[in-house]
Design brief:
Blueprint (H helix, E strand, L loop, with lengths): L10 E3 L9 E11 L6 E11 L3 E3 L1 H9 L8 H16 L3 E11 L2 E10 L13
Antiparallel strand pairs: 1-4, 2-3, 3-5, 5-6
Protein name: NADPH-dependent 7-cyano-7-deazaguanine reductase
Pathway: tRNA modification; tRNA-queuosine biosynthesis
InterPro entries: GTP-CH-I_C/QueF, NADPH_dep_7-cyano-7-deazaG_red, QueF, QueF_type1
């Protein structure tokens, strides 16, 4: 696998597809360019998902995140595009992308986008005493 930025996302087989469980991935190294000024925007991207048959491969995820560094993107659009691309390759039961963008002009932006597979119902949380 290359270490160059790439839009090529990869997956691997989920070893436990019969169980709902959550995978959390986080990177604080996301950058893109402001489409208005061309200045860099920095963000932490959080990915939470309940896999079905496939899981996202981490190095490919990292290289995919790097592929935005020279692209102009509005925060709302890029967060939803990341969600769409990840859902397309791994078809999870549930996926949430949270983009926490650093301050720009005194304004902080957080964008949350979600996907639910049709028919999937989140399990009841267990509360222990």
């Amino acid at each position: 696998m290359s270490t160059q930025p790439s839009k090529q996302l990869e997956t691997f087989d989920n070893a436990t597809p019969d169980r709902d469980y959550t995978i959390h991935i986080e990177t604080s190294e996301f950058t893109c360019l402001c489409p208005k000024t061309g200045q860099p925007d920095f963000a932490t991207i959080k990915l939470d998902y309940v896999p079905d048959e496939k899981c996202v491969e981490l190095k490919a995820f990292k290289l995919y995140m790097w592929s935005y560094r020279d692209q102009g993107a509005f925060h709302e659009k890029v967060t939803n595009t990341i969600l769409d691309d990840l859902v397309a390759v791994c078809q999870p039961r549930f996926m949430r992308i949270t983009g926490i963008f650093n301050v720009r002009g005194g304004v902080y932006t957080t964008v949350v986008a979600e996907y639910r597979k049709e028919g999937w119902v989140a399990p009841e949380p267990v509360t222990l005493p």
